[in-house]
Structure formats: C-alpha cells, structure tokens
Design goal:
This protein is of the alpha/beta class. It contains 13 helices and 19 strands.
Length: 456
C-alpha cells in the first residue's frame, strides 16, 4: 500500500490533518505543542483508491527530554513513506523549526514531497503573502485548512495522482486486529517494538510516554496482523491533564476498533485494583482477551510460582474465566511466539460453525441430565437452539418464557456448549427468547454472558 507521512514542526495541525484524512479522531489534537510523540498509522480511501497515512511528532530545535526519540520516529516515517506532506502553518508563520524540518527533508532527494500550508481559514487565497514560505525551498505550497476541510479534496487528488508512480502493492489479508491495553509502564510499547522489530514507539521508564492509540500492521510468519498500542490507563485521581483524559478515550476507542485484546499485567509486582478496572473494560467489550503477564524474567521463581500467579489472576479476574494466560518478557524477547500461537487458537474457535441438529442434541441432553430449577414460579423449558451470526460465538435458545431462567442454569448450559465444541478461549453469548408470540410481548429476552445476565 502507498505510504504518506505528515512531517513538520509542532502545532502546525499535522494531527488535525491526519484525523481529517482518515475521517476518525485517532490522534490527540490540542493546542499544547508536542502532543503527538509516536508515529500513528491510518488508512485513507479516496476515489476508490487507498493509501496509508502516517502522523508524526513535531520537529524542533528546542531541547526536550523526548525530542531525540521523536526525531528518530520521524526519520522512521520518512524512510518508510513514498510521499511526504511537509506541513507549515500560515497562522503561526515560519521560524527556525520550519527551516530545521525543511533541511532534514532536503536530505531525502528520492522522496516525493508535497508542500502544504495549513490554517488558511477565511483569507482570500489571492491576497495571501507567501513570499517567506518560498525560502524553505519547496516552491508554492498547497493551501488548506485541515480544521475546516478547505482544500482537502485537492490534496487528496494530488496524492492519488502520484500513486501510479509507485506501482500497485498487493494488499495482504489481515489474520487478526488486536489492541494492547494495561496500566502505565507494564511494557506495552516494549512488546509493540518486539512485534515490529524496530523502535516504533517511545520506550521510557517515565509512565505516560505513549499518549495516542497507535496502529501498525506487521508480518509474522508471513501472515499480516494489525496491532493497536494504547496509552496506559491511570487511576481516576491521577488523570491530571486533559491530554491524559484524551488518552483514556483513545484506549476505549482502540478497544472498539479491535477484534481481540491483549491485557498486559506486570508479573514483577502484585496485581492492583487498577488492573481489575482495566480488565473490566475487556469484559464489557465482550471480545476475546489474552492475559499477557510481562516481565516474567524479573520474577524469582520455583516450580509453583507460575501456578500461584495464575490463581491470583483467576481470583482477581473472575469475569474473564475463559481468557488464556501466557507469560512473557517483552524486553528480553522471551515467549513472544506464544502470543501468536494463542491468537491462532482463538481465531480457530471464533470460526467454529455448529450445525443446528448437533447443537440441539447437546443442549437437549444437558437439559435432560440436569433439569432447570423452578424460578419465578415455573420451570424453564428449552425447545430449540440455533447459532446466530456474531463476532463471537452467539446462540439463541427458544424457551417457554425467559423469565423462568436462573443465571446459574444459563451458566451450566454455557459450560456444556463450551465443552462440547471446544470453545474454551472465547467469550460466548446466549440469547434466551420466548417461542410463544404472546409471551414474547409479555416478557423480555435475556442475554447471558459468563458472570450474569441482562434484560434486553
């Protein structure tokens, strides 16, 4: 796929342009300079043609604790991109940072560079004073306002017009899209860098280094995956700035854009209430979740240590009993392959399709062996079961009246279905519906998940 990188000094509207192009607010946008630190990837479609857009941190001559690492990230983006959008701001004018960015880009004579002048709001284009911008050495800029969508169509036309110069790159089908979530400093970015085999995101002992939810596609054993790394979620009292509040929102959005979750824990410390809260997000999302215990190389172990830690996890995360638990060290690159082995197992279970006759045999047999308890004045009777379409295994059980369902019996049936069809690593959903039209009007359908049931 064609790759286009957005490069420029801080606060020229790079992230606003990125969000405008992908039509989705992924990058954090704020007036505070330096908000974007890592490379952020997104897909753009225009006139039936697609390309990948890369947002980058701001280039500056000023000293900053992260500036050297940010510049390294920008350099990575330039190296992998086919086209560079060099963005300046008409509102702020040019300064030493613009000239610094221009000097860096001029070193890449083999790259196609589109000079973009942003933050042109209501000015008449014919009355703009552009003389100072010619001094940067990239000719006349394309005039846009990312915030107000002015000139965006022309910019997209320019990019698509150059696409044929780079040939058609065959797009490989994704095996899985997953996000990595966890509290700050558990090693999410270290894991991402191992997966991508390069320093894609900033890694530091300072919690909160990653602010955005960062998309990246990568190949493992010749198969393509998409991973979304997220900012760590802090305790509510520690969310001191609006930037970190945005980061929590990005994490929640990352989950909504994923098909699977890697919940990272720090194996070198005890589990915390914060870990439990984040685990609750996994349950609410109702997505397959792999519990990844990181920093296992730092733990003093004997032959019982792993099992004891697993018991602690099961006790804390009772609402995720189906989630597999794996132990890794991202920094030392230990047991990373177990992540992909587990993903493949989960993918296989998600694809299981069960014939209606076989499903009914299992449910009716379970129904005969263990009769439902009397609940709300009557006993539940199940007459028919079928598998419905869904992102996770979903089953509809037609019964005399869902009001007679006790949650313990729903859990019993779920476990029987899991055992019969090998659905051990994925969440499943049971819908109990009345077979009788009259009862359907008088009662509500019941949706059951592992830890309880909700009225629909």
């Amino acid at each position: 796929m064609l790759k286009v990188a957005i490069v420029g000094k801080p606060n020229v509207g790079k992230s606003t342009l990125f969000n405008r192009l992908i039509k989705n607010r992924i990058a954090i946008v704020d007036d505070t300079p330096g908000i974007t630190r890592d490379r952020i990837f997104g897909d753009v479609e225009w006139l039936t043609k697609r390309f990948q857009i890369i947002d980058t941190g701001g280039l500056t001559t000023e000293s900053d604790v992260f500036q050297r690492a940010i510049e390294q990230q920008v350099q990575f983006a330039i190296d992998e991109a086919d086209i560079i959008l060099f963005v300046c701001s008409y509102k702020e004018g040019i300064n030493a940072d613009d000239h610094y960015a221009a000097k860096l880009l001029k070193k890449h004579k083999n790259k196609k560079i589109i000079f973009v002048l942003n933050k042109i709001e209501n000015q008449n284009k014919d009355q703009l004073n552009l003389s100072s911008y010619f001094s940067l050495g990239f000719g006349k800029p394309m005039i846009i306002s990312a915030e107000h969508a002015i000139g965006i169509g022309d910019l997209l036309d320019e990019i698509i017009g150059l696409k044929d110069q780079f040939g058609n790159k065959k797009e490989q089908e994704l095996v899985a899209t997953f996000c990595i979530i966890g509290k700050p400093n558990v090693g999410k970015s270290s894991l991402l860098n191992q997966l991508l085999k390069k320093e894609r995101v900033l890694v530091s002992d300072i919690p909160g280094t990653t602010r955005d939810a960062i998309d990246a596609t990568f190949s493992y054993n010749k198969e393509l995956y998409k991973v979304i790394d997220t900012a760590g979620i802090r305790r509510k009292g520690k969310i001191a700035t609006r930037i970190e509040k945005f980061s929590v929102q990005r994490t929640q959005q990352a989950i909504s854009r994923s098909k699977m979750i890697l919940l990272m824990l720090d194996g070198s410390v005890d589990l915390s209430e914060q870990d439990e809260v984040i685990g609750g997000l996994c349950y609410e999302a109702n997505l397959p979740t792999i519990i990844v215990v990181n920093k296992w190389d730092l733990v003093k172990k004997d032959d019982k240590t792993m099992e004891l830690f697993k018991k602690q996890i099961r006790s804390k995360f009772k609402y995720l009993p189906w989630s597999p638990i794996i132990f890794i060290s991202a920094k030392a690159n230990l047991r990373i392959d177990t992540i992909f082995q587990t993903i493949k197992l989960i993918q296989a279970q998600l694809k299981i399709k069960i014939s209606t006759s076989l499903l009914n045999d299992v449910v009716q047999k379970a129904h005969m062996i263990n009769q439902p308890p009397i609940f709300n004045g009557n006993r539940l009777s199940i007459t028919y079961t079928t598998q419905a379409q869904g992102q996770i295994p979903t089953f509809v059980l037609f019964c005399n009246n869902p009001d007679y369902l006790h949650f313990s019996y729903a859990r019993y049936l779920e476990n029987k279905i899991r055992e019969a069809f090998g659905l051990s690593y994925v969440p499943i959903t049971l819908y109990f519906k009345s077979k009788n039209a009259r009862n359907r009007k008088l009662s509500k359908d019941v949706k059951f998940k592992q830890t309880g049931y909700d009225l629909e």
